[in-house]
Amino acid sequence: MSARDADTAGTEPSLTSRSDTPPQGEDQVVTDHDLGIHGYAHHKAAHLKRLRRIEGQIRGLQRMLEEDVYCIDILTQVSASTKGLQSFGLQLLEEHLRHCVADAAAKGPEAIDEKVSEATRAVERMLRT
């Protein structure tokens, strides 16, 4: 590599396509989902805050056991923690439907079917818990 090449390395535009951008054809639709933008992206900070609160509830359960708290009081906290996770999961599912399934709609019926099946399997897993 010459001194000139070293000076300009990384400053010239690449002629190859970026690996994180899907190739675009005449009938290829590129959506946010293709670019790695998930449905929860706009609410990420709020989701993290909510998960930290749930994490605190779980740590509270550990503390309650260590302090020999009455069983029913611990079960009440278990219920609150479980409801918090279920509520978070439902919110994430709603965002998936609004964003990911809507993005699939731009790509056609096969993509929609795939995303709806994926969401259905997620709901089934949530109902088993």
Question: Notable features of this structure?
Answer:
129 residues; mainly alpha; 4 helices; elongated
Structure description:
With 129 residues, this protein is mostly helical. It has four helices and no strands. Helix 2 (44-66) packs antiparallel against helix 3 and helix 3 (71-105) runs antiparallel to helix 4. The longest helix has 35 residues, at 71-105. Mean pLDDT is 78; it is low at 1-26.
Summarize this, please?
By secondary structure, the chain is mostly helical. 65% of the residues lie in helices and 0% in strands.
What's the structural blueprint in terms of helices and strands?
Elements (H helix, E strand, L loop, with lengths): L2 H6 L35 H23 L4 H35 L3 H20 L1
Helix pairs in contact: 2-3, 3-4
- The value of Rg in angstroms is 23 Å
| Helix share bin | 55-70%
The largest sheet is: none
Outline type: elongated
